[in-house]
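Input chain follows. Return structure tokens only.
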Amino acid sequence: MSILQDIKDTFRQPNNTLKQLILINVIVFVVLIVLRLLLTFTAGPGAYNLIMSFIELHSSPMVFITRPWTIITYFFTHQGFLHIIFNMLNLYWFGQLIREYLGDKKLLSLYVLGGIAGGLLYLLTYNFIPYFEDRAANSVMIGASASVLAIVVAAATLLPNYTFNLLLIGPVRIKYIALFLVLLSMSGAVGDNAGGNIAHLGGALIGWLFIKQLQRGNDMGRPLHAIFNFFGGLFSRKPKLKVTHRTSAYSTRTNGSATTTVGKPSQKEIDLILDKISSSGYESLSKEEKQKLFQASQKE
């Protein structure tokens, strides 16, 4: 099977957001490597820099107004191998947790909202804080770090006691991993990559807010879902009219006997389950609670 067919299959498969996000980042990275090589040897480095100016996020408000789409394109763009490897590994590890417990739509919402929040905080600080005044005219930013840190912090907020086995260190709770990454970004907010680290903090804030609001029954990603559904409907084929009836059921146990309850778990039930995960970890859930959480994520 060809690479092109593998790519097509990845985007055709439903509930495959995590692989799709990683693949988009990798494709953009590879395309930019090829373009940089070709343009440098033919038209010169200026041609490549011109293309990048329409992808990277510029700190100047006047430039940003003429290229507003860069608030999105910048967090799908990388140029260094270590940069993209570090981001994609964290996206995969922590994205798996968000995808498993909250579903693909929540994962996509966190990625996009984290990137937008990071970009906006970058623009605001570079234009309204005097310390950055000298840098604002020529600063640009790329990278998915703000989006990824939003997912990292969200996972740590939802499952603080979940552990990863780190090489040479052993088991570490993810709340400490997230805290380390946030402190690292704070320490770098006055360094050479100040803009990038400030964007990381914007993503981290969104990750924390997203889960806290979700636990209160508010989905910050709902407006994004409406936008995605609208544009998705424009490019999808409309199926033939077909009337079907399907009943969803999950089992519960009362007084030692099994009964069947029909319907989707209520938001109140999901909120209670999320609160239990936050306080005691996913392992503390009963089989029925895990099934309800799984059903809610599949039907979002």
